[in-house]
Amino acid sequence: MEKSNMTNNPMTSCVINYPVSPSQELVRLPLATRLRVAVLDPADELQSLAYDALNSDAMLDITHSHYTLSEPARFHVALVYIPHRATDKLTVLQHLTPAISHIIIVSDELTSEIARLSVQFKVDDLIPLSDLSGSLYPALSSIAATISQQVSVAPLTSIINGKAGSGATFLTCCLSEIHNAHSHNELALIDADFNFGSLAHGLHAESRYSIDEALAELHKLDEAAIRSMMTTSNGIKLIGNAPFSRLQQSSESCEQFDRLCWKIRQTFGEVFVDMSKGLEQHTLPILNQSSTILIVMQLSVACLRETKAILQAMRRHASVDDKNIAIVVNRYVTGKGEIQLADVTSVLGVSNIFTISNNFELARLRTDLGRSLNSLANHKTITRELHQIVHFIAPNSLRPTIDKAGFFSRLLRSK
Q1: What's the distance, CA 128 to chain centroid?
Q2: Contact between residue 72 and residue 100 where contact means Cβ atoms under 8 Å apart
Q3: How many angstroms separate the CA atoms of 297 and 304, rounded?
């Protein structure tokens, strides 16, 4: 009986030799954390089965190589193709295992030798080449779940104007100053206003490395590179923008900006994002990362109306929990105006309400000249109000304050 030529059948896979039948697309749950994956594939055998799936997943940072890695310690996972006839199997695994904690071996034939090496080096998974497309993602999901229990990812706070000009950038600058003075976590600021560099001006700093430049080299950015690209102002780390950079944005920039924020969160202890322009396509993914969202408004009908519209859009387009949302009423004067704080709570349906007292001269000097709060007159009331907001954002990171004037405090501190 003559054998059929399977390789000439258009409904047959030449790689794994079984008839291809249409199937429903698998629904993949997002990985528990981002993974840096090194794909070591000297023969390019994995390309047709794995590369497309890996490169299309926003939670994966992929580096392709031929068995040699200049900095193996920076990767979470190594996906290694080892042909069963390869003579250097032992050498490859001996090189990788001291530096990379999680290894997945792929082989075209699961011989007893490869199985023995998998046990010896305690690899996470051993996948036959023919089953790679179905088994790779579950293996990565298991590794991501394990790493998520070990890797510290900083909480992210998004600060948004309920209406343009309400003071989100001013508030971001002031909150960062209070946080830096009272928290043990290192703070990073991200300027998500792609029209102007107001955040850098408010900190009296010159951002020498823009977000666009970071996005262009995103695949190269490790912790050291992330730190080197940040501008430092009084201990606060900042990455800003080139003016009107959105005009040159590519279609991939939304996803890339999301990935950049994740990398910054893995490098620093706390992250604030100034989203003063409100909700935009490139900043929507950041809301899904946010542990806290501050919406800045003033007590006017126009502000209340537009803030309500932003909240409705936010609830529709992003996964946000109302208990993590706070309204900050800027330039507040007690008892003045037709709208009261109770009206804000009732109309917006948000129970967390903070106020920042109206002090135009202080705000002008802080914003225009980048002067610190402590250097300005009449700063104590606003400083106290800001400290309450920082406590809401990061209650577990603040250092306890000690009354320096108290006799008993000095006595206890001396012991």
Answers
A1: 34
A2: yes
A3: 7
Are 187 and 220 within 8 A, CB to CB? no
Q: Are 300 and 136 in contact (CB under 8 A)?
A: no
- The pLDDT profile of the chain, 415 residues, written as one tens digit per residue, is 444 444 344 443 333 333 334 444 445 666 777 788 888 887 777 766 666 666 667 678 788 887 677 788 888 999 998 887 777 888 888 888 888 999 999 998 888 898 999 999 999 999 998 888 888 889 998 998 888 777 678 999 999 999 988 999 999 999 999 999 888 889 999 998 877 778 888 888 887 788 888 888 887 787 888 898 999 988 899 998 877 766 665 545 677 888 899 889 988 999 999 998 888 887 888 888 899 999 999 999 999 999 999 999 998 888 888 899 999 999 999 877 778 999 999 999 999 999 999 887 888 777 777 777 877 777 889 999 999 999 999 887 776 654 444 444 444 444 3
Query: What single letter denotes the amino acid at residue 127?
Result: I
Rounded to whole angstroms, the Cα distance separating 83 from 105 reads 10
Residue 251 is which amino acid? S
Rounded to the nearest 10 degrees, the angle between the axes of helix 168-182 and helix 380-393 is 80
Looking up tokens 């007893």, which residue turns up? 112
